[in-house]
Amino acid sequence: MARTDHVRQAVLLTADGLPLSASDGMRARDIEHLAAVCSGFHSLARSAGERFAAGDVRQTMVMLDDAYLFITPAGDGSRLAVLSEVQTDVGQLAHEMALLVRRVGRHMDAAVRSAVHSAGS
Questions:
Q1: What is the pTM of this model?
Q2: N or C: which end of the chain has fewer CB within 10 A?
């Protein structure tokens, strides 16, 4: 993402919203919040694709007043989220995210968590 201007922050997260990695300098609570929000957005987009027979989610983009938020599937069970300034070239950013995922996506896999049962269950 270094080749793309105006990127504020990036987070790699699991499908269920746990952060795996983040941009240098991000506060832990911001990392956790962004990961949770992006997991929700991606889940909603996936639900729309399923409900309306529109296929898999390739990318979710949220336009805010002062930023863009992009979420794209990365490795198996993970998502890459990037928050950028509004001045960013959205086509270039989307392209760079896709290239990054193609190059290193298999290294971005996230194991699926299973429920933990107590001894009394």
A1: 0.85
A2: C
What residue segments make up the domains of the chain, in order of their start? 7-107
CATH value of 7-107 in 2.40.50.100, 3.30.450.30, 3.30.420.40, 1.20.1050.10: 3.30.450.30
> Cα 114 to chain center, whole Å?
21
Instruction: Report the alpha-carbon distance of residue 98 to residue 62 in Å, rounded.
Output: 17
Position 75 scores a pLDDT of 82
Between CA 19 and CA 27 the distance in angstroms is 12
Q: How many angstroms separate the Cα of 11 from the Cα of each of 70, 79, 121?
A: 10, 8, 36
